[in-house]
Amino acid sequence: MIDRYQAAEITRIWSEKNKYRKWLDVELAITETWAEMGEVPAASLKNIRKNATVDPARILAIEKKVKHDVIAFLTSLEEAIGLDSAYVHKGITSYDVVDTALSLLIQESMAVVLVKTAALAKILLEKAFAYKDLPAIGRTHGIHAEPIAFGCKFLIWHEEMERDRQRLLRAKEITAVGKISGSVGTYIHFPARGEEKALQKLGLRACRVSSQIIQRDRHAEVIWALALLGTALEKIAVEIRLLQKTETLEVEEPFSRGQKGSSSMPHKRNPVRCERISGLARILRGHAAVALENNILWHERDISHSSAERVIFPDSFHLAVFMLDDMIDILKNLAVYPENIRRNLDLTHEIYFSQRVLTLLVDKGVARQRAYDLVQVQAMKSWQEKRSFRDLVMADAAICAVCSPQELEKVFSLEELLAGIGGIFARFAKGK
Q1: Which of 68, 89, 94, 141 is the catalytic position?
Q2: What predicted TM-score, i.e. pTM, was given to this entire model?
Q3: 141 part of the active site
Q4: Is 299 considered catalytic here?
């Protein structure tokens, strides 16, 4: 499903052809390093560079017989290179190649995710400022609380996306490593100085210590960062779904010409794309659990992580990029209905001023619990009888005994209730 949409670049990165290309890049870097150390003749290196090719179909055919992917890869290189292939894979083990190449694939994939995450953060900031002056009701526990600026929703998402970007950058950095230290990490057949040189050619650093593999806590951090990104995308998707409910209808995800919402009810306009993001985020979180399990291996290494990684790495990057592209498009074309936002703000007859009245009474010397009880009585009456909270407060003898009409009227100011919003947005003005 996902490959048919926006994740073509991730499909290319995690293709068999590109994986084998990365394996070859590692092998060539090592062979070149051997040549620099005087262990491979210049003519042989030239022949290797010229004739070493990647043929996925041939590798697969060989693997069916030998049941070992790296041996199949090396056999195909031997067929292409000839006798000089003896200098390829010299002094190293399979996972010197596989794990170092995996780091290259992760680096390539993370670069794609980071570009799209930055693009989404930019859109969220633009939306935040577009709606910074639109009052809306804030909700806690799903119940009307106090007003906010509608743009605050986007600002909160933008800030979280920036945190996600920092986590992704750290995960990219922590996996920008390789290892060419041999079967149990002891540099018996290939020197540590050679490892550093070879990895520099690939743009990677050497692990300070390794076993047969790069330790999987690094890889778990990548999947964890992608899973957290997924939860951020789902957070946005869930809020859109909630605000698109018929009774609320403050926003609506794009509904294109010719789109159908139901096989039986022609009137339906369902938030199916946001619902899809919620579902895919669950898969990402599941992959994070697998990545954590992969860190626990026997002794210097077993192979239990390998089969799982063949699924969770390409799948997680596919999911992340698809979800990012989908959310970018949803937000670009999101329908926002200010008239409904205002209607919902007015739905509870201004009881959202209750804290302002409470604070005024306390400031006038009324004991807090006494003041709370006085305000709650009128708030509940407004709620249950659908009457103006302002009128009920103005008519309350106990409240009016300590507060003047002018003081009470000032309390019922939406502008003052939102006075702190400007300062919040000022913190983000430079990044706009």
Answers
A1: 141
A2: 0.93
A3: yes
A4: no
